[in-house]
TrEMBL record:
<protein>
    <submittedName>
        <fullName>Phosphate ABC transporter substrate-binding protein</fullName>
    </submittedName>
</protein>
<feature type="domain" description="PBP">
    <location>
        <begin position="35"/>
        <end position="274"/>
    </location>
</feature>
<dbReference type="InterPro" id="IPR024370">
    <property type="entry name" value="PBP_domain"/>
</dbReference>
<keyword id="KW-0732">Signal</keyword>
<dbReference type="Pfam" id="PF12849">
    <property type="entry name" value="PBP_like_2"/>
</dbReference>
<dbReference type="InterPro" id="IPR050811">
    <property type="entry name" value="Phosphate_ABC_transporter"/>
</dbReference>
Length: 307
């Protein structure tokens, strides 16, 4: 009886293995770099720039259908590691431990940088000061001493901005008092616009490309200029300051493809890192990793338009 059970178990395993391979084969046959359908899981702090990229990509390649799924960074990475997501857009690279898990599965993730983003610190408009030292923020997040900051507000406890600021402050957990979180960047912006002495932490893209219903709310907040830990000047998260490495809260953005074949993930990554994709990044207020080229028309003679 035991021998029979082992045989049945082996047959079932082989059947499932073949079916999974067949499904993977069918996916790769029905999908190319320019056609088919794919889900792209996106760090919710940078959703707008990905929405822009996908809209132009689909408008250019009519046989491509890309579904954007915004999630927190923790959820996104977990989905990728558990093979629930194959293409993701994130604000960090994979760690050596995470890469090791893919190596065991014989999968080599394709990591493509496409933009440099800034994490913005915001406050209610008409506050006395629009300048802030990064050390003041770090001291508050470390629970040190008195501060003019009443509280710091994040979008989500599992977000990339929380992880970034924890790494910067070198803490495992934030103080239980004075640090708050909501669910979205829009909620952070709205809360800060209504409360004095609160500092909000959001992705720059949510400010440079607000949704229509957030335009008026954005007018009620100030984007603070930040002084770095080893600097004497304050810098705003502008494209120029990010490009010159002056803004102290900048981060790289990546698209990570774990499809394992030449599918839409590869096509989208090439598009985002290419000429058109980089122009979209530039227009969005973020910094492209490559400066898009400019074309000039050279005329052989001067035309006098006033004749």
């Amino acid at each position: 009886m035991l021998k029979y059970s082992k045989v049945v178990g082996l047959v079932l395993f082989v059947f499932l293995f073949v079916m999974c391979n067949q499904k993977s084969k069918n996916e790769s046959e029905n999908e190319t770099i320019l056609k088919g359908s794919v889900d792209v899981t996106v760090d919710e702090t940078i959703k707008q720039i990905v929405d822009d990229q996908v809209a132009v990509f689909e408008g250019t390649y009519y046989d491509a259908k890309i579904t954007v799924k915004p999630k927190s960074e923790v959820e996104l990475i977990n989905d990728l590691l558990n093979k629930k997501a194959k293409v993701v857009v994130t604000a960090r690279k994979l760690t050596n431990e995470e890469l090791g898990r893919f190596e065991k599965s014989k999968i080599k993730p394709r990591v493509t940088p496409f933009a440099v983003d800034g994490i913005a610190l915001i406050a209610k408009k008409n506050n006395n000061d629009t300048l802030i030292a990064l050390k003041t923020v770090i001291d508050f997040l470390q629970g040190k001493g008195d501060s003019k900051i009443k509280g710091i507000v994040f979008d989500n406890p599992n977000s990339s901005t929380v992880r970034y600021m924890k790494e910067l402050a070198k803490v495992k957990d934030f103080p239980s008092a004075g640090v708050f979180s909501f669910k979205t960047n829009d909620e952070v912006i709205k809360f800060v616009s209504e409360n004095d002495e609160m500092i909000g932490v959001v992705g720059v893209n949510w400010l440079s490309q607000p949704s229509p219903d957030m335009v008026e709310t954005i007018k009620k907040i100030d984007v603070l200029s930040v002084k770095g830990l080893n600097d004497n000047e304050y810098y705003s998260p502008s494209q120029t300051n990010i490009a010159l490495n002056k803004y102290p809260l900048a981060r790289d953005l990546f698209i990570i493809n774990c499809q394992g074949y030449s599918g839409l993930g590869m096509g989208l990554a090439s598009f985002m890192a290419g000429e058109i994709g980089q122009r979209i990044v530039l227009k969005s207020g973020l910094m492209p990793v490559k400066t898009p080229g400019r074309k000039f028309n050279i005329r052989s003679q001067i035309i006098n338009d006033k004749e």
